[in-house]
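Quick one, probably user error.
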C-alpha cells in the first residue's frame, strides 16, 4: 500500500502508524488503540530513557487506578476541570457500589491522601516520586492514536513535595530542564509557554507547557510542568512539622508526559517513505540485506552477514538480517517504512573485497566502508542523529514568526506559531483568541529567543511579554 505524501499530514500519520506496525487502530472502542510489538519496542526505548532521567533523583511508585468519589471531589477547581472527562465505575457485578470509583484521569487525588500519611516532618521533604501508568479521559474533541486518547497508556506523572514555595519553584525549573534534555535527545524541538490563567492545569498556581509544531503547522502540547503551590496540600491536609515545631502546608509540583512524545517523534522526523528514527530509539537499528545471486557463494554471504550481525550486537545494536524471498527493492521499501537507520548490503563483491555497502535512512546515499572499520558506524549514526535534530529545529524555526499586527498574526497562526507583544490582560488575551481563531499558548518562556516589540498587539499599551498563538491539536 502506498503511503500518502507527508504534506497530507493526517492521512500520512494514520496510515504510517498502522502500516509501520506501531499501533493497531482497529480496537472497537473510540479513542483506544493497541500497541503492536514493533511500536512497543519503540515505546520501551523512549520510556527506558525517560525513566533513566527521572531515576536520577525521583523514586518510582505505583498507585491504584481507582479513586473513591469522596477523594476525587475534594479539590473544587480540580473537579471543575475534570468532571466532564471522568469515567466512573458504578457497579461491582450486579451490585451498585456504595462509593462510586473514578478511573484516574491523572493521579493527584489518588496520591495526595497517601502523601498526607507519609509526610510528618521537614525530614520527609523533599519527596519526589513518579509513575508510568494508564489514565482515562473521556475526551470529546476528535480522538487520534498517540495524540488524543481516551485511554492514555503511557502517562508519566511525577509528583513532588517541598517545604517552601521557593523550593517548589526550583523544582519546576529542574523539571523543565529534565524535559528539555528528554526532548533534545529525541530531536523534538519545542517552545515553552506559561499558559494563560484560563488554560492552566485545574488546581495549579501556574502551568508551563512544552509545545512542538507538527508538520501541518498545528502545535501539540507534549509535556507540562505545574506549580501547585499549597492548593492541594490545603485540600488533602498535607502538613509537616518545621524545625521550630510549627506545622505548615507543603508546596507541591507535578509534571507529565504521555505517548504524545512518540507521536511527535514519528511526525517530526518521518518522511514520504515512512518512519525516520534517531539511532538510539530505533527498535531495529540496522538491517543486513544479503544480496544473493543464484547459487553463487550463497553460504559465504550468509556466513558473513551473521558475522557482521554478531559484531554489531556485541556493540549493543539491535540488528536483523532480511533473507526473505522479497526482491531487494521490496526489502528496501519495507525497512525504510520502519525507519531502520542503517542498511548494510553484503553480496559477492563485498565478501571478496572485505567491504560493506552502507546507507543511512535519512539521506539514503550509499557508500562503502572496509569491514574492519565497522566500529566507526556507531559514531556515524550518532552524527546522523545530530543532523536529524538540526533539521527538525530549522523546520520549527521556519514556522515561528514575530508579528507586528493582529492581521499578520492571524495570517500566520494557521501556518505555525505567531508571536507578538502582549500586555498580559485577560481581555486582550481573549480578544487575541477570538480574532485569530486560534489558541493563546501563553507567555513565551523558552525554546526560542524573541524580544517583546514593546507594545500589546491588541491595546498597544506596554507589553512586557512575548506571547504566542497557534492552531492546536
Ligand atoms: N497531573 C498533571 C501532571 S502529570 C497532568 O495531568 N497534566 S496534564 O493534564 O497537562 O497532562 C500531562 C500531559 O499529558 C499533557 O501535557 C499532554 O501532553 C498529555 N495528555 C493529556 N491528555 C492527553 C490525551 N487525552 N491523550 C494523549 N496525551 C494526553
Ligand atoms: Zn493589551
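Nope, works fine. Designed sequence:
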Amino acid at each position: 500500500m502506498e503511503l500518502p505524501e507527508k504534506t497530507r499530514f493526517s492521512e500520512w500519520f494514520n496510515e504510517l502508524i498502522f502500516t509501520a506496525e506501531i499501533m493497531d487502530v482497529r480496537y472497537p472502542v473510540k479513542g483506544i488503540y493497541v500497541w503492536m510489538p514493533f511500536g512497543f519496542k519503540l515505546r520501551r526505548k523512549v520510556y527506558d530513557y525517560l525513566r533513566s532521567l527521572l531515576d536520577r533523583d525521583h523514586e518510582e511508585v505505583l498507585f491504584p487506578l481507582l479513586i473513591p468519589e469522596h477523594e476525587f471531589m475534594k479539590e473544587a477547581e480540580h473537579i471543575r476541570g475534570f468532571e466532564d472527562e471522568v469515567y466512573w465505575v458504578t457497579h461491582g457485578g450486579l451490585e451498585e457500589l456504595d462509593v462510586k470509583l473514578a478511573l484516574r484521569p491523572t493521579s493527584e487525588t489518588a496520591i495526595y491522601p497517601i502523601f498526607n500519611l507519609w509526610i510528618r516532618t521537614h525530614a520527609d521533604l523533599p519527596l519526589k516520586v513518579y509513575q508510568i501508568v494508564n489514565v482515562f479521559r473521556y475526551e470529546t474533541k476528535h480522538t487520534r492514536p498517540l495524540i488524543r486518547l481516551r485511554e492514555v497508556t503511557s502517562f508519566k506523572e511525577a509528583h513532588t513535595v517541598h517545604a517552601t514555595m521557593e523550593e517548589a519553584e526550583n523544582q519546576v525549573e529542574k523539571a523543565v530542564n529534565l524535559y528539555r534534555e528528554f526532548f533534545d535527545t529525541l530531536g523534538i524541538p519545542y517552545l515553552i509557554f506559561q499558559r494563560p490563567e484560563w488554560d492552566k492545569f485545574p488546581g495549579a498556581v501556574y502551568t508551563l507547557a512544552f509545545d512542538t509544531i507538527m508538520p501541518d503547522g498545528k502545535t501539540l502540547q507534549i509535556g507540562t510542568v505545574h506549580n501547585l503551590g499549597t492548593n492541594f496540600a490545603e485540600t488533602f491536609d498535607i502538613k509537616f512539622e518545621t524545625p521550630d515545631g510549627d506545622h505548615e502546608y507543603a508546596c507541591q509540583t507535578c509534571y507529565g508526559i504521555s505517548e504524545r512524545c512518540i507521536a511527535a517523534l514519528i511526525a517530526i522526523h518521518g518522511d514520504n517513505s515512512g518512519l525516520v528514527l534517531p539511532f538510539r530509539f530505533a527498535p531495529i537499528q540496522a538491517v543486513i540485506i544479503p544480496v544473493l545471486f543464484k547459487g553463487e557463494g550463497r553460504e559465504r554471504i550468509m556466513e558473513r552477514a551473521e558475522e557482521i550481525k554478531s559484531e554489531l550486537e556485541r556493540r549493543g545494536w539491535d540488528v536483523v538480517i532480511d533473507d526473505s524471498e522479497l526482491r531487494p527493492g521490496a526489502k528496501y521499501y519495507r525497512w525504510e517504512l520502519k525507519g531502520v537507520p542503517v542498511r548494510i548490503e553484503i553480496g559477492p563483491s563485498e565478501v571478496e573485497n572485505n567491504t560493506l555497502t552502507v546507507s543511512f535512512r535519512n539521506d539514503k546515499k550509499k557508500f562503502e566502508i572496509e569491514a574492519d572499520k565497522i566500529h566507526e558506524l556507531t559514531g556515524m549514526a550518532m552524527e546522523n542523529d545530530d543532523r536529524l535534530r538540526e533539521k527538525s529545529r530549522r523546520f520549527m524555526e521556519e514556522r515561528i514568526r514575530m508579528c507586528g499586527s493582529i492581521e499578520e498574526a492571524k495570517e500566520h497562526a494557521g501556518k505555525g506559531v505567531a508571536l507578538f507583544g502582549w500586555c498580559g490582560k485577560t481581555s486582550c488575551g481573549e480578544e487575541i483568541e477570538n480574532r485569530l481563531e486560534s489558541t493563546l499558548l501563553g507567555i513565551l518562556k523558552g525554546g526560542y529567543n524573541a524580544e517583546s516589540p514593546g507594545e500589546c498587539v491588541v491595546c498597544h499599551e506596554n507589553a512586557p511579554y512575548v506571547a504566542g498563538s497557534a492552531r492546536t491539536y
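Residues 400-470 form a domain with the Translation Initiation Factor IF3 fold (CATH 3.30.110.30).
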